[in-house]
Design a protein that fits this description.
Order of helices and strands: EHEHEEHEEEHEHHHHHHHH
Radius of gyration: 23 Å
Largest sheet: 4 strands, parallel
Number of strands: 8
Shape: elongated
Strand content: 5-15%
Strand order of the largest sheet: 2-1-5-8
Length: 326
Protein backbone atom coordinates (compact mmCIF):
# COMPACT_ATOMS: atom_id res chain seq x y z
CA UNK A 1 0.00 0.00 0.00
CA UNK A 2 1.26 3.47 -0.83
CA UNK A 3 2.28 5.35 2.35
CA UNK A 4 0.40 8.47 3.42
CA UNK A 5 2.47 11.48 2.42
CA UNK A 6 2.22 14.71 0.49
CA UNK A 7 -1.10 15.03 -1.32
CA UNK A 8 -0.90 14.23 -5.02
CA UNK A 9 -2.18 16.16 -6.82
CA UNK A 10 -1.62 19.27 -4.72
CA UNK A 11 -4.58 20.60 -2.73
CA UNK A 12 -6.68 23.31 -4.33
CA UNK A 13 -5.81 26.87 -3.38
CA UNK A 14 -8.59 29.35 -2.61
CA UNK A 15 -9.18 32.33 -4.91
CA UNK A 16 -7.97 35.12 -2.69
CA UNK A 17 -8.98 38.74 -3.12
CA UNK A 18 -6.49 41.53 -3.74
CA UNK A 19 -7.17 45.22 -3.47
CA UNK A 20 -5.86 46.94 -6.58
CA UNK A 21 -5.59 50.36 -8.15
CA UNK A 22 -8.48 50.43 -10.61
CA UNK A 23 -6.40 51.82 -13.48
CA UNK A 24 -4.28 48.63 -13.43
CA UNK A 25 -7.25 46.49 -14.45
CA UNK A 26 -8.15 48.80 -17.31
CA UNK A 27 -10.73 51.10 -15.75
CA UNK A 28 -10.58 54.61 -17.33
CA UNK A 29 -10.03 56.44 -14.06
CA UNK A 30 -6.72 58.25 -14.62
CA UNK A 31 -6.54 62.03 -14.40
CA UNK A 32 -6.56 62.17 -18.22
CA UNK A 33 -9.46 59.73 -18.52
CA UNK A 34 -7.20 56.85 -19.52
CA UNK A 35 -5.98 53.73 -17.75
CA UNK A 36 -2.74 51.82 -17.05
CA UNK A 37 -3.86 48.26 -17.64
CA UNK A 38 -1.17 45.80 -16.64
CA UNK A 39 -1.31 42.67 -18.78
CA UNK A 40 0.51 40.44 -16.31
CA UNK A 41 -2.15 41.29 -13.75
CA UNK A 42 -5.18 41.02 -16.02
CA UNK A 43 -4.02 38.11 -18.18
CA UNK A 44 -2.21 36.00 -15.58
CA UNK A 45 -2.88 36.89 -11.96
CA UNK A 46 -6.60 37.24 -12.70
CA UNK A 47 -6.72 33.49 -13.32
CA UNK A 48 -5.90 32.90 -9.66
CA UNK A 49 -7.08 35.99 -7.75
CA UNK A 50 -10.17 38.14 -7.50
CA UNK A 51 -9.68 41.91 -7.48
CA UNK A 52 -11.36 44.70 -5.57
CA UNK A 53 -10.60 47.64 -7.84
CA UNK A 54 -10.33 51.02 -6.12
CA UNK A 55 -9.54 54.50 -7.40
CA UNK A 56 -9.27 56.85 -4.41
CA UNK A 57 -9.57 60.00 -6.52
CA UNK A 58 -12.82 58.76 -8.03
CA UNK A 59 -14.03 57.66 -4.60
CA UNK A 60 -13.62 61.16 -3.16
CA UNK A 61 -15.58 62.65 -6.06
CA UNK A 62 -12.85 64.05 -8.31
CA UNK A 63 -14.06 62.27 -11.45
CA UNK A 64 -12.12 61.55 -14.65
CA UNK A 65 -10.68 63.44 -16.35
CA UNK A 66 -9.67 65.70 -13.46
CA UNK A 67 -6.97 68.18 -12.46
CA UNK A 68 -3.64 66.37 -11.94
CA UNK A 69 -2.17 66.13 -8.43
CA UNK A 70 1.32 66.09 -7.00
CA UNK A 71 2.82 65.73 -3.53
CA UNK A 72 4.13 68.92 -1.96
CA UNK A 73 5.77 69.21 1.43
CA UNK A 74 8.76 69.16 3.70
CA UNK A 75 10.21 66.80 6.28
CA UNK A 76 7.23 67.26 8.61
CA UNK A 77 4.20 67.20 6.31
CA UNK A 78 3.29 66.14 2.77
CA UNK A 79 0.06 67.13 1.02
CA UNK A 80 -1.67 66.19 -2.23
CA UNK A 81 -2.24 69.44 -4.11
CA UNK A 82 -3.35 70.40 -7.59
CA UNK A 83 -0.49 70.84 -10.07
CA UNK A 84 -2.03 73.91 -11.67
CA UNK A 85 -4.06 75.13 -8.69
CA UNK A 86 -2.31 74.67 -5.34
CA UNK A 87 -5.50 75.61 -3.50
CA UNK A 88 -6.89 72.21 -4.52
CA UNK A 89 -5.94 70.15 -1.45
CA UNK A 90 -7.32 66.60 -1.26
CA UNK A 91 -4.94 65.28 1.41
CA UNK A 92 -7.55 64.78 4.11
CA UNK A 93 -10.16 63.08 1.87
CA UNK A 94 -7.58 60.69 0.42
CA UNK A 95 -6.26 59.78 3.87
CA UNK A 96 -9.78 59.34 5.25
CA UNK A 97 -10.71 57.07 2.35
CA UNK A 98 -7.58 54.97 2.96
CA UNK A 99 -8.64 54.51 6.57
CA UNK A 100 -12.16 53.60 5.44
CA UNK A 101 -10.88 50.94 3.03
CA UNK A 102 -8.61 49.55 5.75
CA UNK A 103 -11.59 49.25 8.10
CA UNK A 104 -13.49 47.21 5.49
CA UNK A 105 -10.59 45.08 4.22
CA UNK A 106 -11.35 41.84 6.05
CA UNK A 107 -11.64 40.01 2.73
CA UNK A 108 -8.36 41.31 1.32
CA UNK A 109 -5.21 39.17 1.36
CA UNK A 110 -2.97 41.74 -0.32
CA UNK A 111 -2.88 44.97 -2.30
CA UNK A 112 -1.40 46.05 -5.64
CA UNK A 113 -0.76 49.78 -5.98
CA UNK A 114 -0.05 51.97 -9.00
CA UNK A 115 3.57 53.05 -8.82
CA UNK A 116 4.55 56.72 -8.58
CA UNK A 117 0.96 57.87 -8.06
CA UNK A 118 0.50 60.77 -5.59
CA UNK A 119 -2.40 58.81 -4.12
CA UNK A 120 -1.39 55.16 -4.57
CA UNK A 121 2.40 55.00 -4.92
CA UNK A 122 4.09 52.89 -2.23
CA UNK A 123 7.50 54.53 -2.45
CA UNK A 124 9.67 56.87 -4.53
CA UNK A 125 6.70 59.13 -5.36
CA UNK A 126 7.98 62.60 -6.27
CA UNK A 127 7.62 65.16 -3.48
CA UNK A 128 8.11 68.82 -4.40
CA UNK A 129 9.02 71.73 -2.16
CA UNK A 130 6.91 74.86 -1.94
CA UNK A 131 9.25 76.42 -4.51
CA UNK A 132 8.37 73.69 -7.02
CA UNK A 133 11.75 71.95 -6.86
CA UNK A 134 11.88 68.20 -6.45
CA UNK A 135 12.93 67.37 -2.88
CA UNK A 136 12.74 63.62 -2.37
CA UNK A 137 10.65 60.48 -2.79
CA UNK A 138 7.61 59.72 -0.68
CA UNK A 139 4.47 57.63 -0.48
CA UNK A 140 1.03 58.36 -1.90
CA UNK A 141 -1.49 59.73 0.60
CA UNK A 142 -4.08 56.95 0.19
CA UNK A 143 -1.47 54.17 0.18
CA UNK A 144 0.19 55.63 3.28
CA UNK A 145 -3.07 55.72 5.24
CA UNK A 146 -4.01 52.18 4.23
CA UNK A 147 -0.59 50.69 4.93
CA UNK A 148 -0.33 52.40 8.31
CA UNK A 149 -3.74 51.03 9.29
CA UNK A 150 -2.91 47.51 8.03
CA UNK A 151 0.86 47.06 8.50
CA UNK A 152 0.72 43.28 8.01
CA UNK A 153 -1.22 43.38 4.72
CA UNK A 154 1.13 42.40 1.85
CA UNK A 155 1.46 45.28 -0.60
CA UNK A 156 3.36 45.71 -3.85
CA UNK A 157 3.52 47.95 -6.93
CA UNK A 158 2.72 46.63 -10.39
CA UNK A 159 6.12 47.35 -11.94
CA UNK A 160 8.00 45.34 -9.33
CA UNK A 161 6.02 42.22 -10.28
CA UNK A 162 8.26 41.99 -13.35
CA UNK A 163 11.07 40.90 -11.02
CA UNK A 164 10.57 37.12 -10.47
CA UNK A 165 11.95 37.21 -6.92
CA UNK A 166 9.78 40.17 -5.87
CA UNK A 167 6.74 38.60 -7.56
CA UNK A 168 7.28 35.32 -5.73
CA UNK A 169 7.83 37.11 -2.44
CA UNK A 170 4.58 39.08 -2.79
CA UNK A 171 2.46 36.05 -3.66
CA UNK A 172 4.05 34.01 -0.89
CA UNK A 173 3.17 36.75 1.59
CA UNK A 174 -0.38 36.99 0.25
CA UNK A 175 -1.07 33.30 0.87
CA UNK A 176 0.75 33.37 4.20
CA UNK A 177 -1.31 36.38 5.33
CA UNK A 178 -4.50 34.54 4.35
CA UNK A 179 -3.47 31.55 6.45
CA UNK A 180 -2.64 33.85 9.35
CA UNK A 181 -5.97 35.65 9.09
CA UNK A 182 -7.77 32.30 8.98
CA UNK A 183 -5.96 31.22 12.15
CA UNK A 184 -7.00 34.40 13.95
CA UNK A 185 -10.58 34.18 12.67
CA UNK A 186 -10.87 30.62 13.97
CA UNK A 187 -10.06 31.78 17.50
CA UNK A 188 -6.43 30.72 17.76
CA UNK A 189 -5.31 28.70 20.75
CA UNK A 190 -1.76 28.27 22.01
CA UNK A 191 -1.62 24.80 20.47
CA UNK A 192 -2.90 26.14 17.13
CA UNK A 193 -0.21 28.83 17.12
CA UNK A 194 2.50 26.25 17.81
CA UNK A 195 1.19 24.08 14.98
CA UNK A 196 1.04 27.08 12.63
CA UNK A 197 4.66 27.92 13.40
CA UNK A 198 5.74 24.31 12.95
CA UNK A 199 4.14 24.05 9.51
CA UNK A 200 5.91 27.22 8.36
CA UNK A 201 9.39 26.47 9.73
CA UNK A 202 11.06 25.58 6.44
CA UNK A 203 9.38 28.49 4.68
CA UNK A 204 10.57 30.89 7.38
CA UNK A 205 14.06 29.39 7.31
CA UNK A 206 14.35 30.37 3.64
CA UNK A 207 13.91 34.00 4.71
CA UNK A 208 16.58 33.90 7.42
CA UNK A 209 17.57 31.38 10.10
CA UNK A 210 18.11 34.06 12.76
CA UNK A 211 14.62 35.46 12.19
CA UNK A 212 13.24 31.93 12.50
CA UNK A 213 15.06 31.55 15.82
CA UNK A 214 13.52 34.80 17.09
CA UNK A 215 10.05 33.49 16.28
CA UNK A 216 10.94 30.16 17.86
CA UNK A 217 11.86 31.88 21.10
CA UNK A 218 8.54 33.72 21.03
CA UNK A 219 6.72 30.39 20.61
CA UNK A 220 8.72 28.90 23.48
CA UNK A 221 7.50 31.72 25.75
CA UNK A 222 3.79 31.16 25.09
CA UNK A 223 1.98 31.21 28.42
CA UNK A 224 4.16 33.91 29.96
CA UNK A 225 1.87 36.66 28.65
CA UNK A 226 -1.76 36.91 27.50
CA UNK A 227 -2.31 34.85 24.35
CA UNK A 228 -3.60 37.88 22.42
CA UNK A 229 -0.26 39.60 22.99
CA UNK A 230 1.65 36.53 21.81
CA UNK A 231 -0.51 36.38 18.70
CA UNK A 232 0.06 40.04 17.90
CA UNK A 233 3.80 39.77 18.38
CA UNK A 234 4.05 36.55 16.39
CA UNK A 235 1.92 37.84 13.51
CA UNK A 236 4.06 40.95 13.20
CA UNK A 237 7.31 38.96 13.28
CA UNK A 238 5.93 36.30 10.93
CA UNK A 239 4.94 38.75 8.19
CA UNK A 240 8.07 40.85 8.66
CA UNK A 241 10.26 37.76 8.27
CA UNK A 242 8.53 36.82 5.02
CA UNK A 243 9.12 40.32 3.66
CA UNK A 244 12.85 39.57 3.43
CA UNK A 245 13.91 38.04 0.12
CA UNK A 246 14.61 34.30 0.16
CA UNK A 247 17.88 33.76 -1.70
CA UNK A 248 19.11 30.71 -3.59
CA UNK A 249 21.67 30.09 -0.85
CA UNK A 250 18.98 30.11 1.83
CA UNK A 251 16.70 27.85 -0.20
CA UNK A 252 19.60 25.45 -0.76
CA UNK A 253 20.24 25.39 2.99
CA UNK A 254 16.56 24.57 3.57
CA UNK A 255 16.71 21.72 1.07
CA UNK A 256 19.84 20.27 2.64
CA UNK A 257 18.23 20.63 6.07
CA UNK A 258 15.16 18.73 4.85
CA UNK A 259 17.34 16.10 3.20
CA UNK A 260 18.91 15.40 6.59
CA UNK A 261 15.61 14.02 7.87
CA UNK A 262 15.71 11.35 5.15
CA UNK A 263 19.34 10.28 5.50
CA UNK A 264 18.36 6.83 6.78
CA UNK A 265 15.76 6.24 4.07
CA UNK A 266 17.56 7.39 0.92
CA UNK A 267 19.97 5.16 -0.96
CA UNK A 268 23.47 6.48 -1.75
CA UNK A 269 22.34 6.99 -5.34
CA UNK A 270 19.25 8.93 -4.24
CA UNK A 271 21.38 11.14 -1.99
CA UNK A 272 23.87 11.87 -4.75
CA UNK A 273 21.08 12.72 -7.19
CA UNK A 274 19.43 15.05 -4.68
CA UNK A 275 22.72 16.79 -3.84
CA UNK A 276 23.37 17.26 -7.55
CA UNK A 277 19.92 18.84 -8.01
CA UNK A 278 20.33 21.15 -5.02
CA UNK A 279 23.78 22.28 -6.15
CA UNK A 280 22.53 22.85 -9.70
CA UNK A 281 19.84 25.07 -8.24
CA UNK A 282 22.23 26.89 -5.90
CA UNK A 283 24.58 27.67 -8.78
CA UNK A 284 21.72 28.95 -10.98
CA UNK A 285 21.78 26.08 -13.48
CA UNK A 286 18.18 25.01 -12.82
CA UNK A 287 15.13 26.61 -11.15
CA UNK A 288 13.99 25.67 -7.66
CA UNK A 289 11.17 23.51 -8.98
CA UNK A 290 13.77 20.86 -9.90
CA UNK A 291 15.03 19.96 -6.39
CA UNK A 292 11.55 20.62 -4.94
CA UNK A 293 10.01 18.08 -7.31
CA UNK A 294 12.69 15.55 -6.44
CA UNK A 295 12.15 16.10 -2.70
CA UNK A 296 8.42 15.67 -3.14
CA UNK A 297 9.07 12.39 -4.95
CA UNK A 298 11.13 11.08 -2.04
CA UNK A 299 8.58 12.27 0.53
CA UNK A 300 5.84 10.32 -1.23
CA UNK A 301 7.86 7.15 -0.76
CA UNK A 302 9.43 8.04 2.60
CA UNK A 303 6.92 10.28 4.40
CA UNK A 304 8.43 12.03 7.40
CA UNK A 305 5.83 13.43 9.82
CA UNK A 306 7.64 16.76 10.21
CA UNK A 307 8.47 17.28 6.55
CA UNK A 308 5.13 16.31 5.02
CA UNK A 309 3.28 19.00 6.96
CA UNK A 310 5.54 21.80 5.74
CA UNK A 311 3.93 24.64 3.76
CA UNK A 312 7.27 24.99 1.97
CA UNK A 313 6.41 22.24 -0.51
CA UNK A 314 3.10 23.74 -1.63
CA UNK A 315 2.85 27.41 -0.71
CA UNK A 316 1.14 28.86 -3.83
CA UNK A 317 -0.87 27.61 -6.84
CA UNK A 318 1.51 25.55 -9.03
CA UNK A 319 -0.03 27.07 -12.18
CA UNK A 320 1.60 30.39 -11.30
CA UNK A 321 4.94 28.73 -12.08
CA UNK A 322 6.77 30.75 -9.42
CA UNK A 323 9.45 28.16 -8.71
CA UNK A 324 10.34 28.12 -12.40
CA UNK A 325 12.14 31.47 -12.27
CA UNK A 326 13.84 31.58 -8.86
Amino acid sequence: MRPSALPDPLPAFPRLTLGISACLVGEPVRFDGGHKRDRYITDHLARHFDFRAVCPEMAIGMGAPRPPLRLVGDDTEVRALGVRDATLDVTAPLAAFGQHVAATAQDLSGYLFKARSPSCGMERVKVYGENGHLRRGGRGIYADALMRALPLLPAEEEGRLQDPALRENFIARVHAYHRWQALRAAGATADALVQFHTRHKLMLMAHGSERLRVLGRLIAQIGTEPLIDSLDRYGSGFMQTLSYRATRKRHANVLYHAMGYLKQQLTPGDKAELVEAIEAYRTEQVPRVVPITLMRHHLRHHPHPYLVQQIYWHWAPPALGLGNDT
